[in-house]
Write a structure and sequence with these properties.
This protein is an alpha+beta fold. The protein has a six-stranded antiparallel β-sheet with strand order 3-4-8-7-6-5, covered by helices on one side. The longest helix has 29 residues.
């Protein structure tokens, strides 16, 4: 009897976690901006149209507070050109590394100053043939351009 109740409880918890996970991904697909304190950054979906979100993480690491979103797409290069080059680099973001979005797999790194004094936001992008990940980290620092 105790074993069957324990099994039922475990199954119920698994269902709750599964439903919560689906809800988080669904909500992430509807986001218009990534919010990091006082900062609002346009989302991939608000720039290129709806893409399936397959992963969401957030927390605090050694580099600062971060949010990470993984997207599935059949048009990775086109999405990232529209989002990174036409969107962010034209609006006070700066490339910290050289990158070529036609070379797949690849990485890119951009940064901008935060609305909060003496803070910056760094965007790390990793991309593959059919998916990409956007990781935003907000930390102490200043952006010095050469």
């Amino acid at each position: 009897m105790k074993k069957s109740m324990r099994t039922a409880l475990v199954l119920m918890l698994i269902c709750v976690f599964a439903l919560t996970g689906c809800s988080i991904l669904s909500n992430a697909e509807k986001l218009e901006t990534y919010e990091l304190g006082a900062d609002s950054i346009p989302t991939v979906n608000s720039v290129v149209g709806e893409r399936k979100v397959t992963g969401v993480q957030s927390g605090t690491g050694t580099g600062g507070t971060y949010k990470e979103y993984t997207y599935e797409s059949q048009t990775v290069t086109e999405d990232l050109i529209a989002y990174l080059i036409d969107g962010l680099l034209e609006n006070n973001w700066h490339a910290l590394t050289n990158f070529n979005l036609n070379d797949i797999p690849g990485t890119a790194q951009l940064a901008t100053e935060s609305e909060d004094s003496e803070q910056i936001i760094i965007m790390d992008v990793t991309y593959e043939q059919d998916a990409y990940t956007i990781k935003l980290t907000k930390s102490k620092g200043t952006l010095t351009l050469n």
